[in-house]
Design a protein that fits this description.
This protein is of the alpha/beta class. The protein is built from 14 helices and 19 strands. It is globular and about 85 Å long. About 3% of the residues have low confidence. The structure holds adenosine-5'-triphosphate and magnesium ion.
């Protein structure tokens, strides 16, 4: 099994509707602060989510499932993302939407399994022989190209490494020079090089240089202690899916196949059940030997009513396996038909046996005051100015329509204000755009009143 070259496959998503959310906003006793970390109100649900976070962190939640249920726009997705923020980046969090399973190329269960494994982390501790220190010198030594012709090639690299104990000069292979360049290593950085594989890891800038550039987003690390050449405990966080991908891909060094591969961009190689079983076996061995530790993360399935009976059954079984993440579902449906069945009506469109396993967290509609607070937060995140009168008219509008509608009105209202040569949104702007756009409820009303005018 390859571990060295495992690249992270974590999904990087930017969910702009929720960028103001930074966490659950709980105090040290786990009670919700009315407005904190970008979340407003919804105290009960936030406190319940806080307990879930504690259970996940103390690893008591694997194989369990939580359902966030409530009307549209009551913050279910927002709270799930806040849970992700609270867990930090060491615990995997894999978001997906129920409808993602319907792909014409990949089996439904395959999509689920992949996401399942994205949500299970493995922390691997290894003791490795390394050269570590602050770079004092980095100079490639060139020679005439032995193949003749013009130009020169790098024959070796001279690298100086400094620790608190001393300095050492290394003469390195040109291939390591390439990895040094890839990591953008320069003098003053703290790096380590694995003795066996030659892999280079840049840890950050030495804090001797901390005052150099204050503006740069740079991580400063202390000068390493001990000898330059030593044994070091290296910790790597990967997910099971990372391991699947790394071991399924025909990787390779400089051979022809990999050159061809780069040219032809081969299709995604298949990750078979057999491969997964093999990886599980190795992982279990590592865990038994104490080299690796399992970190069950979170699989978040939004709009869970989009799953069908087949995927529900599969999911239910997968939750029972020894290696399983915590699954968080969210839905805004009440009683509805389970997809893929003829006429089975069930609460939230989830089969009763699965429902029976769930801890359910309820989200409630917001009060006018809370809506105003949330709109204000959004205005700040979007860099818009809004005066108090306009804010209160949005609050009132929000109680009649929905939170999401009024949040969405902000941007058009800002444009209207700009057209009227103002920098701050006023009540007129709100009224103007509200007359131009419809919220879902008014639209539905018009549809039912004018049924005869629409095509059936
Ligand atoms: N308590 C809250 N504090 C701050 N912002 C919130 C809060 N609740 C919701 N929001 C924001 O309001 C918008 C709508 O909320 P969200 O998308 O979480 O609703 P939802 O319950 O997932 O709705 P749906 O059922 O339609 O998926 C989002 O932009 C969200 O960030
Ligand atoms: Mg949602």
């Amino acid at each position: 099994m390859k571990i060295e070259e495992v690249k992270s496959t974590a999904k990087t998503q930017r969910i702009s509707a929720h960028t103001h959310i930074k966490g659950l906003g709980l105090d040290e006793n786990g009670s919700a602060i009315q407005s904190a970390a970008g979340l407003v109100g919804q105290e009960m649900a936030r406190e319940a989510a806080g307990i879930v976070v504690d259970m996940i962190k103390s690893k008591r939640m694997a194989g369990r499932a939580v359902l966030l249920a409530g009307p549209p726009g009551t913050g279910k997705t927002a709270i799930a993302l806040a849970i992700a923020q609270e867990l930090g980046n060491k615990v995997p969090f894999c978001p997906m939407v129920g409808s993602e399973v319907y792909s014409s190329e990949i089996k439904k269960t395959e999509v689920l399994m992949e996401n399942f494994r994205r949500a299970i982390g493995l922390r691997i501790k290894e003791t490795k022989e390394v050269y570590e220190g602050e770079v004092t010198e980095l100079s490639p030594v060139e020679t005439e190209n032995p193949m003749g012709g013009y130009g020169k090639t790098v024959s070796h690299v001279v690298l100086g490494l400094k620790t608190s104990k001393g300095t050492k000069q290394l003469k390195l292979d040109p291939s390591i020079y390439e990895s040094l360049q890839k990591e953008k290593v320069e003098a003053g950085d703290v790096i380590y090089i694995e003795a066996n594989s030659g892999a280079v890891k840049r840890q950050g800038r030495s804090d001797n240089f901390a005052t150099e550039f204050d503006l740069e987003a740079e991580e400063y690390v202390p000068l390493p202690k001990g000898d330059v050449h030593k044994k070091k405990e290296v910790i790597q966080d990967v997910t099971l899916h990372d391991l699947d991908v790394a071991n399924a891909k025909p990787q390779g060094g400089q051979d022809i196949m990999s050159m061809m591969g780069q040219l032809m961009k081969p299709k995604k190689t298949e990750i078979t059940d057999k491969l997964r079983k093999e990886i599980n076996k190795v992982v279990n061995k590592y865990i038994d030997q104490g080299i690796a530790e399992l970190v069950p993360g979170v699989l978040f399935i939004d709009e869970v009513h989009m799953l069908d009976i087949e995927t529900f059954t599969y999911l239910h079984r997968a939750l029972e396996s020894a290696i399983a993440p915590i699954v968080i579902f969210a839905t805004n449906r009440g009683r509805c038909e389970i997809r893929g069945t003829e006429d089975i009506i069930s609460p939230h469109g989830i089969p009763l046996d699965l429902l029976d396993r769930l801890l359910i967290i309820r989200t409630l509609p917001y009060s006018r005051q809370e809506i105003e607070q949330i709109v204000k937060l959004r205005a700040v995140t979007e860099g818009l100015q809004i005066d108090d009168e306009a804010l209160s008219s949005l609050g009132e509008l929000g109680t009649k329509t929905t939170l999401r509608y009024v949040v969405q009105l902000l941007t058009p209202a800002a444009l209207a204000a700009k057209v009227n040569e103002r920098t701050s949104i006023k009540k007129e702007d709100i009224e103007e755009v509200n007359a131009l756009f419809l919220d879902a409820k008014s639209s539905a009303k018009i549809l039912s009143q004018n049924q005869d005018k629409f095509m059936k």
